[in-house]
């Protein structure tokens, strides 16, 4: 079921027409996409495939696989990007983005101290010249897809 004015639901409704970066991996409950508007290559978003606005609304089946997905994504990001760790966060507060989604962000060894921890969110909504290009998103998506869908 999709909800009007929900970005994630709109993407889910046209899943077959999405680029690989919007459907890197998926199963019955979850879909993985590369975040847009970010300056951090490999910034992933893990989304329930049905409309959910709070974590407590997840079904037991969705909850049972949430941790597994987060670990799988962290491992895949480590293999693909060489990150030393991953950050995982969930807020779902912006207008049009209340659909629960988990940010899974590679923390590279060279990430400056002033962008570590929650300050990593400063890498979102960057001006277009600073954002990860669609070509790089596709390259990362392809590498991640190969690791996650085997």
Overview of this structure, please?
The protein is an alpha+beta fold and 150 residues long. It has a single domain, classed as HIT-like (HIT family, subunit A, 2-Layer Sandwich), CATH 3.30.428. It is 29% helix and 16% strand. It contains three helices and five strands. It has helices spanning 7-13, 60-81, 134-148; strands at residues 25-26, 30-34, 44-48, 85-90, 102-107. A five-stranded antiparallel sheet has the order 1-2-3-5-4. Strand 1 (25-26) and strand 2 form a beta hairpin. The longest helix has 22 residues, at 60-81. The radius of gyration is 15 Å and the shape is globular. The relative contact order is 0.22. The mean pLDDT is 95.
In short:
By secondary structure, the protein is α+β, with helices and mostly antiparallel strands. The protein contains 3 helices and 5 strands; from the N terminus they run αβββαββα.
Question: How would you sum up the major sheet?
Answer: 5 strands, antiparallel
Helix and strand run: HEEEHEEH
Number of domains: 1
Spatial order of the strands in the main sheet? 1-2-3-5-4
Helical segment tally? 3
CATH architecture assignment: 2-Layer Sandwich
By DSSP, the count of extended strands is 5
CATH topology: HIT family, subunit A
Q: What is the helical fraction, as a range of percent?
A: 25-40%
């Amino acid at each position: 079921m999709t909800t009007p004015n929900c970005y994630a639901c709109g993407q889910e409704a046209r899943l077959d027409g999405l680029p690989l970066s919007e459907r890197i991996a998926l199963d019955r409950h979850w879909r993985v996409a590369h975040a847009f508007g970010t300056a951090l290559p490999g910034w992933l978003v893990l989304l329930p495939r049905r409309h959910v606005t709070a974590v407590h609304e997840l079904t037991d089946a969705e909850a049972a696989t949430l941790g597994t997905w987060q670990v799988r994504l962290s491992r895949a990001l480590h293999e693909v990007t060489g990150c030393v760790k991953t950050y995982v966060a969930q807020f779902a507060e912006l207008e049009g983005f209340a659909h629960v989604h988990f940010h899974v962000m590679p923390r590279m060894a060279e990430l400056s101290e002033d962008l570590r921890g929650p300050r990593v969110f400063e890498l979102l909504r960057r001006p277009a010249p600073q954002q990860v290009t669609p070509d790089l998103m596709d390259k990362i998506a392809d590498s991640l897809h190969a690791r996650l869908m085997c």
